[in-house]
Amino acid sequence: MADLDPDVVLAMTEQAPDGIVIIDREGLIRYWNRGAERIFGYTAAEVDGRNLDVIIPEKHRQRHWDGFVAAMASGTSKYGDDDLLAVPALTADGSTVSIEFSVVLLTAPDGTAGHVGAVIRDVTARRAQEKETRRRLLAATPNTATPTS
């Protein structure tokens, strides 16, 4: 893989259908690919230099920033390679989507945590389908509870 042209790698990240987002130590968006544009409805230019509050629902912001600050300070994340996080997110038009994502702390040249990267997938349609399947199963299940007198 050493002979892989870095421009090919960059083209892959730019064109990937999944969102790829990188934020800096201050929590500001520094990379936003076409997949992120598709998922969230913001162009890269619209979010460049903004913090992630643009996509984080207000009720989840404090928890996100507490975890972010702790991870940047310690240089480690409580989430491992096998962890897939699932949360609601906001889009440019104010609607909510369901996303799943993995995160990675990217080390700066001095060895500290310099950036955080995320690979994001919109799973809104799948979640709706799962919810409908659960609703149908519950509706088809006979009520086994007996009334009490």
From TrEMBL:
It holds the Pfam family PAS_4. Residues 5-58 form the PAS domain. It comes from the Bacteria. CDD domains: PAS. This is PAS domain S-box protein. It comes from Streptomyces liangshanensis. The lineage of its organism: Bacteria, Bacillati, Actinomycetota, Actinomycetes, Kitasatosporales.
